[in-house]
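Chain A, query sequence.
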Amino acid sequence: MMPPKDAFTKEELQVTSSLRQMKLSGMADALENQLRDPNADLASFMDRIIEIVNTEWQNRYDKKFSRFLKQAKLRYPAADLDESIYDPGRMLDTASIERLNTCHWVEEGRNLLITGLTSSGKTYLSNALCISAIRQFKTVRYIRASILMNEF
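Chain A, predicted structure.
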């Protein structure tokens, strides 16, 4: 086993620089990580290239998701449909929530109205459904009903 590399060759620097100029910084970072890793040669060429491409793809996905999430202006940007929806004490129709989570209703041009008592979790649920839509790169905007009425 060789120690990790501290310096890159001229060719390695040129390749990573070219990747960055082509706006493929995720690929450049993954390649640099492989070049630093003394055990990277143990993986097949295909495994190494898959890792490089997947890193670039994930970086682009994360950036696009973050942009959509910021534009949505959600009150709870970390909202998620976790195990709490299955709590029997909450008396939620979990089958309906799971269907809503697929966002087919959006593609069908349907509207969704969430009603309930104060502090029952309507905003959190709506934000979680918004995040599900954002994961599918659907444009979302969270607006309170009072502000929406004023805009109308």
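The mean pLDDT is 89. The helical segments are 10-21, 25-36, 45-72, 94-101, 104-107, 122-135, 145-151.
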